[in-house]
Amino acid sequence: MNNARSSEQADQPVIVCEQLTRSYREGPGRLTVFSDISLRVGAGETVAIVGSSGAGKTTLLNLLGGLDKPTSGHIAICGADIHGLSEGGRARFRNRHLGFVYQFHHLLPEFTALENVMMPGVLGSQSVRESRRRARAMLTEVGLEPRLAHKPGELSGGERQRVAIARALVNEPDCVLMDEPTGNLDEQTGEGVRKLIQSLQQRLGIAFVVVTHDMPMARQLGRVLRLEKGELVANEPEGARPEGSAE
User: Fold this and answer.
1) At 104, phi and psi to the nearest 5?
2) Which of 48, 60, 226, 236 is deepest in the core (most CB within 10 A)?
């Protein structure tokens, strides 16, 4: 795993959102989830987004990942307008620059942990040999070297989530987007995943954007933002400020 990021990468924001709005048609009118949101995430930065259920946190994460399109506004990921790409172009861009971890791990049950983590590399046209090498190294990084040949049904909940994290990181993305990564875990297992995320961020220099109801996790991260009533604002006074202010 390459821990170093170039100075050019370090200086460039990984995510820049400007005046982002998402609304849906609802009967004769429209439902606005949020409007005019601005957000910048720097290289290697970790941001937690909290808020009540239904506030639009997952919608925002899907927009950042190119899985949904904004009604208006602009999103740049690593300087690229992801929504200006074709569907195939977005898929290739995500494979190279973004990793995803969800509350439910979404591992393929018929494949081993090693094979699941190999998938992004194989889909990204790496050789099988190189994909296997990277997957083995990443699973070792998250403490699962003894479980490489086990299928998801043979792993604990915490182990399955570690496999999902390894899969998200194996292509050395610029940013990992996480949607409730500890939401389906008991407190002890969740604490282990929290510590793992924090350790990986510090050692690998990858940016993380984490949507969570897990306030202990949110407080361990570098910046905490709250999405409420269509606005994204600083949740804590220390080291945080409302989005849209000067960098």
Assistant:
1) -100, 125
2) 60
